[in-house]
Design brief:
By secondary structure, the protein is of the alpha/beta class. The protein folds into three domains: 8-67, Beta Barrel (OB fold (Dihydrolipoamide Acetyltransferase, E2P)); 82-130 and 294-483, 3-Layer(aba) Sandwich (Rossmann fold), CATH 3.40.50; 134-278, Beta Barrel (OB fold (Dihydrolipoamide Acetyltransferase, E2P)), CATH 2.40.50. Helices cover 26% and strands 30% of the residues. It is built from eleven helices and 21 strands. It has helices at residues 89-106, 112-118, 171-185, 228-238, 295-309, 326-332, 345-357, 370-383, 404-413, 425-436, 477-480; strands spanning 8-16, 22-26, 29-33, 41-49, 53-63, 134-141, 147-152, 159-161, 200-207, 213-220, 244-252, 264-270, 273-278, 281-286, 316-320, 337-342, 363-367, 392-395, 417-422, 440-448, 458-465. It has a seven-stranded mixed sheet with strand order 8-7-6-9-10-11-12. Strand 10 (213-220), helix 4 and strand 11 (244-252) form a beta-alpha-beta unit. It binds S-adenosyl-L-homocysteine.
């Protein structure tokens, strides 16, 4: 049967894709429907028809899925952020577990019996909202020219006014309103990307989950703000309760780009960073540094990574893609030496200072690409007639996964264990296949939900060198964090 654009069809949603889209079939023809959930019976309108499938828009829910709930955020459908807020949390977790399992089987080509053996249950959150410690809000105007801030409507750059995103801390609302009040008072304009005019582009907020310290950074098309001392006064009045303003920054971004932060950051008031803790280690976090956005779940994630690393105090460890040294420093207490590698110079500066502040002396940090630093180290050691000693390599790459040069070097160096921390299970599966074809086997896989309401899932995986004496993994989290 030939389906046409704008045609309306009724379909039962039988599956969900990796991006949370509902998938249903009508006479063998597949429909992908954003916002439709598995179990829904829906009426959809065809938007983009192809030969065997089509993208369709949800028009009406005829019979809701038993897992559908009333989403607490009014904007969940317009916003690109929370793709699966209408799904009950228990089902979100099942969906994420399945996503990881499917990627390992389909992309990684691992046997499902193996995956069933090695996969441990996903670690869920106790509270699915208000978990983010960082938020970036674009600033613009509404159709009447009023200053607004909020979020971009999914896949667009039009701003929907909302100062209270439910994934962020509730203090963000006070902060955003204080900034808008200050801007209105001094006629400071919002940046307009169409003609690169106007001043304030974004408001970036970071909070210390344990310390309550707050950073506010205004990203500006230019290098100054008028009457900035009054901005500080407004912010100080707005920030209260357990929160404590520590840093007000101006970041200069005059480029015609989608990248939020520019290169130059100036302190308007207070410090250039805030401090927070992971376990008992303090971290100084600057505006530019990567820092895990969900503090509670990060501690659980790292606990698993440390367990998987099997540290006894004697190991030489490499932590690749180390950011500001969070995993490096958490592992250093239980290892002989940990080397950290990271591409962002400012993050390496932070990592070194974090080691010093915590009086941790058995770490070394290198600035550079993991796929260059590790191979260089390996080649130099070999040239000097030494076989480089390494017990554990930890990788925590961005979504695109590890460069093949790096995976090659890992397989040449033959560490006893590789701990792979991944934010994209598709590239994880690809990279695991590469390593498993070169002398490694998967021992454990454990998804951790760092991003409730979204389709994203973090995964920790332990690989062991084949034919290595059995290493005992004692995952202490099992009982504690059942969902
Ligand atoms: N392990 C850290 C950071 C993980 S995020 C933590 O848990 O907080 C991934 C990090 O990899 C980012 O800090 C990013 O700047 C860095 N990165 C990206 N590409 C890289 C590369 N090719 N080599 C080294 N680091 C890289």
């Amino acid at each position: 049967m030939n389906y046409q654009k704008n045609q309306t069809i009724t379909v039962k949603i039988e599956d969900m894709g990796a991006e949370g889209e509902g998938i249903g079939k009508v006479e063998g023809y597949t429909l992908f429907v954003k916002d439709a959930l598995i179990g829904d019976l829906v009426e959809v309108k065809i938007v983009k028809p192809k030969k065997s499938y089509a993208f369709a828009k949800l028009e009406r829910i005829i019979e809701p899925s038993k897992d559908r709930i009333e989403p607490p955020c009014l904007y969940h459908r317009q916003c690109g952020g929370c793709q699966i807020q209408a799904l009950s949390y228990a089902t979100q977790l099942k969906f994420k577990e399945e996503k990881v399992r499917n990627h390992l089987i389909r992309i990684g080509r691992f046997e499902d019996t193996l995956i069933n053996q090695v996969m441990e249950p996903i670690i869920g959150m106790s509270e699915g909202f208000r978990y983010r410690n960082k938020a970036q809000f674009p600033v613009g105007v509404d159709k009447d020219g009023n200053l607004i801030t909020g979020f971009y409507a999914g896949r667009t750059h039009s701003i929907i006014s909302n100062t209270d995103c439910m994934l962020g801390a509730s203090i963000n609302k006070n902060i955003l309103e204080a900034v808008l009040t200050y801007m209105k008072k001094y006629n400071i304009t919002a940046y307009d990307e169409k003609n690169s005019s106007g001043v304030v582009r974004h408001i970036l907020i970071r909070e210390g989950f344990h310390t309550g310290e707050v950073m506010v950074c205004l990203v500006v098309n230019g290098d100054r703000l008028p009457e900035s001392s009054d901005l500080i006064t407004h912010l100080q009045q707005a920030i209260k309760g357990k929160w404590n303003l520590k840093s007000v920054l101006l970041n200069c971004n005059t480029e015609d780009t989608n990248v939020i932060l520019g290169k130059k950051t100036e302190v308007l008031w207070g410090q250039s960073y805030i401090t927070d803790y992971i376990k008992d280690i303090s971290f100084q976090i600057s505006a530019q540094s990567f820092y895990q956005v969900n503090s509670m779940q990060t501690e659980k994630l790292y606990t698993i990574a440390i367990d998987y690393a099997g540290l006894t105090g004697k190991e030489i460890v490499w932590d690749l893609y180390c950011g500001i040294g969070t995993i490096t420093l958490c592992m250093a207490k239980q290892a002989a030496h940990v080397f950290g590698v990271e591409i962002v110079p400012k993050a390496i500066e932070d990592a070194k200072r974090n080691a010093q502040n915590n009086k941790i002396t058995n770490t070394t940090f290198y600035e550079g690409k993991a796929e260059e630093v590790l191979p260089d180290f390996y080649e130099k050691e070999r040239a000097a007639g030494r076989d480089p000693e390494v017990d554990v390599i930890v990788v925590d790459p961005p979504r695109k996964g590890c460069d093949v040069t790096l995976l090659d070097t890992i397989s040449k160096m033959q560490p006893k264990r590789v701990v792979y921390v991944s934010c994209d299970s598709a590239t994880l599966a690809r990279d695991l296949r590469y390593l498993c074809d070169r002398g490694y086997e998967i021992k454990k896989v454990r998804p951790v939900d760092q991003f409730a309401q979204t389709v994203h899932v973090e995964t920790v995986c332990l690989l062991s060198k084949l034919h290595e004496a059995k290493h005992h993994v004692n995952v202490t989290l099992d009982k504690e964090y059942k969902y």
